[in-house]
Amino acid sequence: xxxxxxxxxxxxxxxxxxxxxxxxxxxxxxxxxxxxxxxxxxxxxxxxxxxxxxxxxxxxxxxxxxxxxxxxxxxxxxxxxxxxxxxxxxxxxxxxxxxxxxxxxxxxxxxxxxxxxxxxxxxxxxxxxxxxxxxxxxxxxxxxxxxxxxxxxxxxxxxxxxxxxxxxxxxxxxxxxxxxxxxxxxxxxxxxxxxxxxxxxxxxxxxxxxxxxxxxxxxxxxxxxxxxxxxxxxxxxxxxxxxxxxxxxxxxxxxxxxxxxxxxxxxxxxxxxxxxxxxxxxxxxxxxxxxxxxx
Length: 295
Hints:
It contains twelve helices and six strands. It is an alpha+beta fold. It has a domain at 107-289. A four-stranded mixed sheet has the order 1-2-4-6, with helices on one face. Strands 3-5 form a two-stranded antiparallel sheet. The protein is elongated and about 65 Å long. It starts with 34 loop residues before the first strand and ends in a 10-residue tail after the last helix.
């Protein structure tokens, strides 16, 4: 059995220890904020990949050792509660610090899946995307009613019953930051099919009349926005997310899904609204392969 705090190696995985020195992160440089796509390394800060590449052999060994410890922990309970040090942890810490340092101050391109009435698109482009608030939702419903887009009886039910006050929705705007998630019909189709988002459709799933009204308003849209990195909440730092994406493209898994989403509590500028009729919508979602494509 491996000693609880002894540096861990696994001969079966051929894991020689790679130790410092590694390339320093380097002095901080004042950079012009840029828009970064998590799944496109050509948009990342210019020196980031070049600083990660020398660490790649040690990062690969770090994950091999991690998996070896996980396998042994299946039978050795002590390894689950007193995990031994990974001899390549320094390389991972260096890589993570590099990602955190170089992504700071930039913006991450995110995709908000929704359904918008034609009159709403210009205001979203002009004013940006605001976090969900019950007051804003109510004003949007009243505006549609004044345009004759929904019946009065349906309007009253929308106003009296919604989930905009829920703690996991109120004051938030949610985004997909990995474009492959847009292709997942099961994850996004309801957002494209129902005006008002989850705060409305989830509250009226057993009301056929309201559901039909929500599906009949507007058209499916992808709102592309540039979200400041410091404002994103995603269960992990954006530096960690980029490192995971970097490793995944090189067929190295850290045990977590490299695809991710997240939210912000601030209003963010919108780059474009991709409506259903735009060929880019089909290209991003591959909705022509879905069981039922949105309209």
